[in-house]
Specification:
Blueprint (H helix, E strand, L loop, with lengths): L6 E6 L5 H10 L3 E4 L1 H9 L5 E2 H5 L14 H8 L5 H9 L7 E5 L3 H6 L5 H6 L4 H11 L5 E3 L5 H11 L4 H29 L14 E7 L9 E6 L11 E4 L5 H14 L6 E6 L2 E7 L3 H11 L1 H4 L3 E4 L5 H7 L6 E4 L4 H7 L6 E4 L11 E5 L2 E5 L13 E3 L6 H14 L7 E5 L2 E6 L5 H11 L8 E4 L7 H8 L4 E4 L6 H10 L3 E4 L8
Parallel strand pairs: 1-2, 1-4, 2-3, 4-5, 11-12, 12-13, 19-20, 20-21
Antiparallel strand pairs: 6-7, 8-13, 9-10, 9-11, 14-15, 16-21, 17-18, 17-19
Length: about 525
């Protein structure tokens, strides 16, 4: 980049930092070329600007659709400074090089996210000139510095103020970022129009998912594995990935997995609820009249496993709840908020992490994605628990009480978030025992009883899938279970129902399975 007659093209939709950018460029005696609203903004601030139209010899036309699509602009960006033929062409046509490009694009994603946006309005937010300038500048990053993110203004300008030049390393880095920005922009436009196609599905023939790195993690599931956290581009602040850490050391890979599992489960309930997760399985869950009440009952499901667990509350944590949580070591507490008193108390524990999260806890993602060798599996999130109470099928003559139905639906919701085969024992809106991840369902029933720290008599049992044999029902009877909720659908449903009838149990069939592998 030359040391005199330098020019910068500035055309931005996002005006963040624009005034400072303009003043610092002017102080460096760099001529600013600009268009439309950007030029108007800079002039209003008293910053000298040259209109692109005075360079191209053509006015902005077609409601601003055509402004910078001209050889006087793209020749200035694409011309190779060290190529004699390019220099000759530029001299013959009076094309002066452009050394710096500061461009960001029309807010397409923000526009289409607004309720009631028409297709015509969306189309007008498809930037043409901006991506063209970005790609031209990025292609010629050997000579041209392209900046698409206001967060990069300061370091580029600081370098110019210090050395009068940018360096090849930063130009290459910014070019990569520029190509990434245009790629993501095109992906958003593609996704929007794909959604308008007749017969469109959630699973297009080509699935492009834009992710941006939020942070590198210390390691993955184990210390010898590397890991990073990515979030969906254009959706900052959503879900666990966007939660605000208000206290504690950095989150680990396993912390994020467990926190997400806890947050998704606690979001199933409209009443105050607390969930405790350990190794990606809930070890306790409860409804309650307060955070304190729900936490105590969730913890007491499995006090041993609760130590070092992740706690999620669907209500702000108050002082009383925090005092109880502070009695044992917890890795993470995630909630919609913390009262000042609760925050003050919990931040005295150096090893705890406090996450404040907004939004609906339940399944904020469009897709669930898992890698396999050579590809990925993609599915829609499991947003169903069970049919409405009025649509539940109560098989047999034994009728559950309203309280038992409530416990059954609660237990079935918990089971949705437990690794298969999953069995949940619950009573009075709290888990009594959880059997997770067993290869046979009858073993999960036995494990749920083994994990129980209080009497299982009178509990309701939820199963994430049907019982293939009556042995699970017989085992449940030994635990004192009064009724079962399960999907049904086995070829031995009659045998299973007969077993429940023999033991005096009610049987609720949901028709909904919740495998979690």
């Amino acid at each position: 980049m030359g040391s005199s007659n330098r020019r910068a093209l500035v055309s931005v939709s996002d005006k963040t930092g624009l005034e400072s950018l303009g003043r610092r460029l002017a102080a460096l005696d760099i001529e600013i070329l600009s268009t439309g609203g950007t030029a108007r903004f800079l002039r209003e601030k008293g910053i000298p600007v040259t209109d692109v139209s005075s360079v191209t010899g053509f006015p902005e036309m077609m409601d601003g659709r055509v402004k910078t699509l001209h050889p006087m602009i793209h020749g200035a960006l694409l011309g190779l400074r060290g190529n004699p033929e390019h220099r000759k062409s530029m001299e013959e046509h009076g094309i002066l090089p452009i050394d710096l490009v500061f461009v960001n694009l029309y807010p397409f994603s923000e526009t289409v996210a607004k309720p009631g946006t028409t297709v015509e309005e969306a189309i007008e937010q498809i930037d043409i000139g901006g991506p063209s300038m970005i790609r031209s500048a990025a292609k010629n990053h050997e000579s041209v510095t392209v900046v698409t993110d206001p967060a990069d203004y300061d370091r580029v300008l600081s370098l110019l103020e210090k050395t009068k030049e940018t360096n090849p390393s930063i130009r290459r880095e910014l070019a990569i970022k520029a190509f990434r920005s245009t790629s993501e922009y095109d992906r958003l436009i593609e996704a929007y129009f794909e959604s308008l196609q007749p017969g469109s599905t959630d699973f297009p023939d080509r699935l492009s998912i834009g992710l941006e790195k939020q942070q590198e993690l210390r390691y993955g599931e184990n210390p010898h594995q590397n890991a990073s956290l990515y979030r969906y581009a254009g959706h900052p602040g959503e879900g666990v990935a966007g939660a605000r850490k208000i206290w504690g050391k950095e989150m680990s890979y396993n912390n994020y997995l467990d926190t997400d599992a806890a947050w998704k489960l606690v979001g199933e309930f409209s009443e105050p609820a607390v969930v405790i997760v350990k190794h990606n399985n809930p070890c306790g869950a409860s409804l309650g009249v307060s955070v304190l009440d729900a936490y105590q009952k969730a913890r007491d499901t499995d006090p041993v496993s609760s130590f070092g667990g992740v706690v999620a509350s669907n209500r702000p944590v108050d002082l009383e709840g925090a005092q109880e949580m502070a009695k044992i070591f917890l890795e993470v507490v995630v909630a919609p908020g913390f009262t000042p008193e609760a925050r003050d108390l919990l931040t005295r524990k150096k090893d705890i992490r406090l996450l404040e999260i907004s939004g609906n806890p339940d399944n904020e993602n469009r897709f669930e994605i898992r890698t396999i060798t050579g590809g990925v599996l993609v599915q829609s999130p499991d947003k169903t628990v069970a049919p409405e109470e009025s649509a539940l099928r109560i098989a047999g003559e034994i009728q559950p009480t309203p309280g038992q139905i409530r416990d059954a639906i609660f237990a079935f919701a918990v089971g949705k978030h437990v690794k298969s085969n999953a069995i949940i024992l619950a009573r009075d809106g709290m888990t009594i025992g959880i059997g997770a991840g067993q290869m046979s369902r009858v073993d999960s029933v036995r494990l749920s009883g083994m994990k129980a720290t209080r009497s299982t008599k009178g509990a309701v049992l939820a199963s994430d899938a049907f019982f293939p044999f009556r042995d699970g029902i017989d085992e449940a009877a030994r635990l004192g279970v009064v009724g079962i909720i399960q999907p049904g659908g086995s070829i031995r449903d009659e045998e299973v129902l007969s077993a429940a009838r023999e033991h005096g149990m009610f049987m609720i069939l949901t028709g909904v399975r919740h495998f979690r592998h």
